[in-house]
């Protein structure tokens, strides 16, 4: 199989969430001395792009995205040890978590999965994250974005608190703040002065890239 | 805005609707539940664990607003709890299952089909007895509980459950079977108190699962619950949170008597439900209802009523989901004010 066919097959198997087939095909790329970087960007990431598209178009939903992400990771695991890190574009760094008081993390996890698969460097703080932790982590890893999510109206004000604290510390401009989750709306985003609101995981990733000037 | 006093009691109004008699105004049932604990100075935790507190809060709420249905609800995990899941109760939030009880097939021995007195289910019965005595002659009372999909997903963890739908369908259906049987036991008990069982399916949402998957994991089990309620001669509403525009027809196919909607275009709902059920919805409790102002709430309620004008059997003005602790009570009042002004019918009382 030539390189292009292999990449196409990998993308296809990934979209069909054939986990083992993706891993097998990834092994084949190594046997053919295809650089891991190419397999990732042209096979695996291309596949996940298609998954994002299918998700945004409501063809794929939570189970399908999770299964595809398992296939993506299976392929990644095979080629990653052979990756020449110097070949990578400087990734967009993102600190992500569910704000304090809330443990609903499906939406956040989807954004994390799709961002990671689109080449973001994702620092996932998990759920019920103390508000200062977002800022500390962003400072520590020199993040580009802070992404916060919540499913509850009782905890959404925490997002404003994080933004207010960034302003107090004179570091608001260092970060793009992205928010999302069930009760969040564009109205709320404007109200608290966040940079971006997205109403689903796939558009979150697309809009985040646009915001960072990477299309 | 001219707000007219009600002529019928909520119960008379519902009976009039069910028997095809004229109504004095549009039916209005905002989903007001645990947030009523504030009205009597109690916490959400006390509300969930003490039937007397639950009843007192609801009596206060009903007297304040005079809405057309009392919704007894504690949290989305009470059936899972009765089956063996452990919940975390915090003071001002509905309890939540943080650690799934089923991490592998072996864990199935840790759960069972819930009987009517398991977990905190008896809290509801205590509240129902008090409420039936106090306001049962004036208003219908309902009990909201998570249906098969949401209960199974709570037991397993939502993401693991979602993977199981492809990776281990057998485990998925084993859990759904047990959850369905647990719900059925609870429904029998609810109906024996003369209350209306309401199926909640936050996890079977069109935001999380495809319509195709809904057919496999949700439809047959929900339909079983609807069929049971009908055998018991009870009405049964079905509420699904999040997006539902692609499954609203399937929701109606279950035979549920009321289709309770969250994020769904009412025009689409109107076309798909097509007179087969009441449509209830769908003022966003996390947007206008949370932030106001009152004038904006009036505007969107009127818009919903106008969109559904002439819909039969009826459109019920309500919220898209439960109203949280932070929704100001005057915003809930604003919905009822619209029902009592813009939602009036030409009504001539017989005799």
- As a percent range, the share of helical residues of chain B equals 40-55%
CATH domain topology of chain B: TIM Barrel
Q: What is the domain total for the residues of chain A?
A: 2
**Name of the CATH homologous superfamily of the largest domain in chain A:** Cobalamin-binding domain
Helical content of chain A, roughly? 40-55%
Describe the structure.
The complex is a heterodimer of chains A (215) and B (351). Chain A folds into two domains: 3-86, Methyltransferase, Methionine Synthase (B12-binding Domains), Chain A, domain 1, CATH 1.10.1240.10; 93-211, 3-Layer(aba) Sandwich (Rossmann fold). Helix content of chain A is 55%, strand content 10%. Chain A contains nine helices and five strands; from the N terminus they run ααααβαβαβαβαβα. Chain A has a five-stranded parallel β-sheet, with helices on both faces. The model of chain A has no long low-confidence stretch (mean pLDDT 92). Chain B has 351 residues and is an alpha/beta fold. Chain B has one domain: TIM Barrel (Alpha-Beta Barrel). In chain B, the strands form two sheets. Chain B has a seven-stranded parallel β-sheet with strand order 1-4-5-6-7-8-9. Chain B has a two-stranded antiparallel ribbon with strand order 2-3. Chain B is globular, with a radius of gyration of 19 Å. Classes of the chains: A alpha/beta (215), B alpha/beta (351).
Describe this protein with a few key phrases:
heterodimer; A: alpha/beta; Methyltransferase, Methionine Synthase (B12-binding Domains), Chain A, domain 1; Rossmann fold; 2 domains; 9 helices; 10% strand; B: 351 residues; alpha/beta; TIM Barrel; seven-stranded parallel sheet; 14 helices; globular
What topology emerges from the helices and strands here?
The complex is a heterodimer of chains A (215) and B (351).
Chain A: H1 3-15, H2 19-31, H3 36-56, H4 62-79, E1 93-98, H5 106-117, E2 121-124, H6 131-141, E3 145-149, H7 157-168, E4 176-180, H8 186-192, E5 196-197, H9 201-211
Parallel strand pairs in A: 1-2, 1-3, 3-4, 4-5
Chain B: H1 10-18, H2 44-49, H3 51-65, E1 69-72, H4 78-83, E2 88-90, E3 93-96, H5 121-135, E4 140-146, H6 148-156, H7 158-167, H8 169-192, E5 196-200, H9 211-231, E6 237-243, H10 248-253, E7 258-263, H11 266-273, E8 278-283, H12 288-291, H13 294-307, E9 315-319, H14 329-339
Parallel strand pairs in B: 1-4, 4-5, 5-6, 6-7, 7-8, 8-9
Antiparallel strand pairs in B: 2-3
Helix pairs in contact in B: 3-5, 6-7, 6-8, 7-8, 8-9, 13-14
């Amino acid at each position: 199989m030539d390189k292009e066919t292999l990449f196409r097959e990998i993308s296809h198997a990934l979209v069909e969430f054939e986990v083992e087939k993706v891993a097998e095909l990834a092994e084949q790329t190594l046997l053919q001395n295809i650089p891991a970087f190419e397999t990732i960007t042209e096979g695996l990431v291309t596949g996940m792009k298609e998954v994002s598209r299918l998700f945004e178009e409501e063809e794929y939903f939570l189970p399908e995205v999770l299964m595809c992400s398992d296939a993506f990771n299976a392929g990644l695991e095979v080629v990653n040890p052979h990756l020449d890190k110097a070949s990578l574009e400087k990734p967009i760094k993102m600190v992500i978590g569910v704000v304090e008081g809330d443990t609903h993390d499906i939406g956040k996890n989807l954004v994390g999965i799709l961002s990671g698969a689109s080449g973001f460097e994702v620092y996932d703080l998990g759920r019920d994250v103390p508000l200062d932790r977002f800022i500390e982590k962003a400072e520590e890893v020199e993040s580009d974005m802070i992404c916060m999510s919540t499913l509850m109206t009782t905890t959404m004000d925490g997002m404003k608190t994080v933004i207010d604290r960034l302003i107090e510390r004179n570091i608001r401009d260092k970060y793009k703040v992205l928010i999302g989750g069930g009760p969040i709306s564009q109205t709320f985003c404007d109200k608290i002065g966040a940079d971006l609101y997205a109403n689903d995981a796939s558009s979150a990733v697309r809009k985040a890239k646009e915001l960072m000037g990477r299309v | 805005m001219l707000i007219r006093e009600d002529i019928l009691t909520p119960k008379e109004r519902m009976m009039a609707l069910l028997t095809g008699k004229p109504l004095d105004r549009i039916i209005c049932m905002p989903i007001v539940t645990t947030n009523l604990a504030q009205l009597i100075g109690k916490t959400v935790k006390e509300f969930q664990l003490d039937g007397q507190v639950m009843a007192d809060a609801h009596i206060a709420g009903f007297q304040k607003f005079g809405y057309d249905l009392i919704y007894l609800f504690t949290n989305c995990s009470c059936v899972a709890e009765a089956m063996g899941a452990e919940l975390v109760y915090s003071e001002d939030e509905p309890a939540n299952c943080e650690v799934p009880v089923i991490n592998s097939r072996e864990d199935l021995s840790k759960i069972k089909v819930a009987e009517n007195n398991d977990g905190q289910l008896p809290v509801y019965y205590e509240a129902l007895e008090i409420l039936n005595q106090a306001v049962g002659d004036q208003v219908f009372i309902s009990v909201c509980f998570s249906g098969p999909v949401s209960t199974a997903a709570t037991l397993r963890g939502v993401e693991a459950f979602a993977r199981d739908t492809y990776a281990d369908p057998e485990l998925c259906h084993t859990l759904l079977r047990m959850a369905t049987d647990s719900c059925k036991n609870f429904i029998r008990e609810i109906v024996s108190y003369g209350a209306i069982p309401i199926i909640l399916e936050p996890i079977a949402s069109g935001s999380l699962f495809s319509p195709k998957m809904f057919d496999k994991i949700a439809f047959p089990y929900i339909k079983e619950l609807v069929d049971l309620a009908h055998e018991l001669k009870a009405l049964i509403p079905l509420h699904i949170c999040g997006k539902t525009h692609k499954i609203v027809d399937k929701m109606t196919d279950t035979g549920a008597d009321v289709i309770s909607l969250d994020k769904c275009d009412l025009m689409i709902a109107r076309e798909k439900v097509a007179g087969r059920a009441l449509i209830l919805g769908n003022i966003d409790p996390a947007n206008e209802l949370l932030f106001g102002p009152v004038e904006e709430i009036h505007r969107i309620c009127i818009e919903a009523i106008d969109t559904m004008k002439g819909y039969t059997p009826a459109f019920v003005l309500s919220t898209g989901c439960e109203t949280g602790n932070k929704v100001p009570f005057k915003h809930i009042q604003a919905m009822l004010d619209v029902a009592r002004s813009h939602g009036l019918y030409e009504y001539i009382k017989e005799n």
